[in-house]
Write a structure and sequence with these properties.
The chain is an alpha+beta fold. The chain has helices at about 55-125, 130-165, 195-205, 205-225, 250-255, 275-345, 350-385, 385-390, and strands spanning about 1-10, 15-25, 40-50, 230-245, 260-270. β1 (about 1-10) and β2 form a beta hairpin. α3 packs across α6 and α6 packs antiparallel against α7.
C-alpha cells in the first residue's frame, strides 16, 4: 500500500508526503531477521528545491503569464472581428442610403419628365408644338422609368446585403421586412490630422496589441529556454519515520513511536553532455522572438499605410462633394435656362430632356459623394481602432473597447 501527496511552490520547490506499507512479507530464514513474516511501514516528508535549472518564481509562473497574455489576445481578436463587422455594417447601411437617394433622384427626374410630356401634349393639341416634341418627351419619360426600375432593384439588393451581414435568416421575423434608413446624407467638413490619426491607430489597433503580447510571450519563452540550459542542482531535505513488526497494524503503530526516526539532507547535480536539445530549443526561441519583433514592425507599416489611405480618401471625398455640388447647381441652372428657351421657342424638347438627364446624373453624383464621405469617416475610425468606442460597444467581462 503506497500513498503520496505533493505540493509544488512558485520557487520550484516540491514538498512531498509519502506513506508506504509492505504487509506480511515472507523472507528466507536468517538469524538477523527474527520476524518472519514481517511487515514494514514508513512515513516520509521531503522537500526538494532546485537551485539552477527549473528554479525561480519567474520560471515556474511563466506558463501562467503566457496564459494570461493568451486570454488578452483572445479578447483583442474578438475586438478586431467586431471592428470589421461594425465597419462592414456601416458601409452596407450607407450603401443602402445611397441607393434610396438615387431612387429618390430618379423619381424626381421622372416627375420632371412627366411634367414636360404633359405640357408638350397640351401644346401639341392646340398646334403650338410639333408631334416630334411629344415623342422626344415620351422618350425622356421612358428613360427615367427605366432608371427608376433599375434603382428599385438596386435598393432591394442593398437591403438583402445589409440583412445578410446582420444575419437575418430567411423565415425570421425581420427577414422579409423592409429597411428604411433614418439617416440622410449630410455634409460637414471634419478636420483630420494625419499624424494624430497615425498615433491613435498605433495605440488602438487590436492587431498591434496582439503582436505586442506575442512579443512578450516569446520573451518569456526565451527566458524559459535559457534557464533549461543550466545544469541541474537540487537540494533536498526531509524526515522519515519507519516501523517494523510481524503484524501490519503494529508496524504502523511503531512508526509513531518515534523510535526509528531519521533525518536526511542531500544534493543532486546533473550536467547533460552536449545538451543539444536545450540549446536547439533556446536558439529556436530567440529566432521566434526576433521574427515576432519584425512582424510587429511590418504590421506598424501596414497600419500607417491604412491610415494614410483613409485620410486621403476623406480629403478626396470632401473635394468630390464640393465639385459635384457645384456641378449639380450648374445642371439645375442649365435646365431652368433650357425650359425658359423652350417656352419661347428658342430650343427643342430634346435639349430639355438632355438637361433633365444631366441634372439627374449630377444630383446622383452629388448624393453619392456625400455618402462616400460618410463611409470614409467610418473607415478612418475602423483603421484607427476607435469605431467600437464611437458606437459605445463593450465586451462582457472586459473593459470598454476603443
Amino acid at each position: 500500500l503506497q500513498t503520496a501527496i505533493e505540493k509544488p511552490f512558485e520557487t520550484g520547490a516540491l514538498l512531498s508526503f509519502n506513506f508506504n506499507l509492505i504487509p506480511r512479507e515472507f523472507i528466507n530464514p536468517s538469524p538477523f531477521s527474527p520476524l518472519n513474516p514481517q511487515s514494514r511501514a514508513f512515513i516520509e516528508l521531503k522537500i526538494t528545491q532546485p537551485v539552477l535549472r527549473n528554479a525561480g518564481v519567474f520560471y515556474n509562473r511563466s506558463k501562467i503569464y503566457i496564459a494570461r497574455n493568451n486570454k488578452k489576445i483572445s479578447v483583442l481578436q474578438l475586438k478586431q472581428t467586431a471592428i470589421e463587422v461594425i465597419n462592414n455594417v456601416q458601409k452596407k447601411y450607407w450603401e443602402l442610403v445611397k441607393a434610396v437617394e438615387d431612387l429618390r433622384v430618379r423619381n424626381k427626374s421622372l416627375e420632371r419628365a412627366k411634367d414636360l410630356l404633359r405640357n408638350n401634349r397640351i401644346q401639341a393639341r392646340v398646334g403650338t408644338l410639333a408631334p416630334i416634341d411629344v415623342l422626344e418627351a415620351e422618350e425622356g419619360v421612358a428613360k427615367q422609368v427605366e432608371g427608376v426600375i433599375v434603382e428599385e432593384g438596386n435598393v432591394a439588393n442593398r437591403e438583402d446585403e445589409l440583412k445578410q451581414i446582420m444575419n437575418l435568416k430567411r423565415g425570421s421575423v425581420l427577414s422579409d421586412a423592409s429597411i428604411i434608413p433614418l439617416d440622410k446624407p449630410s455634409f460637414e467638413i471634419k478636420k483630420v490630422s494625419l499624424d494624430e490619426s497615425i498615433e491613435i491607430a498605433l495605440g488602438n489597433r487590436p492587431e498591434l496589441l496582439v503582436q505586442g503580447l506575442d512579443i512578450e510571450n516569446t520573451k518569456i519563452n526565451v527566458k524559459q529556454r535559457r534557464n533549461e540550459l543550466l545544469p541541474k542542482l537540487d537540494v533536498e531535505a526531509g524526515i522519515r519515520y519507519s516501523g517494523l513488526n510481524a503484524n501490519s497494524g503494529h508496524a504502523i503503530d511503531s512508526i509513531f513511536s518515534e523510535q526509528f526516526q531519521s533525518e536526511f539532507f542531500g544534493l543532486t547535480f546533473e550536467m547533460p553532455i552536449g545538451n543539444r536539445e536545450a540549446r536547439n530549443n533556446y536558439s529556436k526561441a530567440k529566432l521566434e522572438a526576433s521574427r515576432s519583433v519584425m512582424s510587429k514592425r511590418k504590421l506598424e507599416q501596414d497600419v500607417v499605410v491604412d491610415v494614410r489611405i483613409a485620410v486621403r480618401q476623406i480629403k478626396t471625398n470632401i473635394e468630390r462633394v464640393k465639385a459635384s455640388t457645384k456641378a449639380k447647381e450648374l445642371a439645375q441652372e442649365r435646365l431652368e435656362a433650357e425650359e425658359k428657351k423652350f417656352k419661347v421657342g428658342r430650343t427643342t424638347s430634346l435639349e430639355v430632356v438632355r438637361a433633365q438627364e444631366n441634372l439627374a446624373i449630377a444630383e446622383g453624383r452629388a448624393t453619392n459623394a456625400i455618402v462616400d464621405y460618410q463611409i470614409s469617416l467610418g473607415n478612418l475610425e475602423a483603421v484607427q481602432g476607435t469605431i467600437l468606442a464611437k458606437n459605445s460597444i463593450t465586451i462582457e467581462g472586459g473593459k470598454e473597447l476603443k
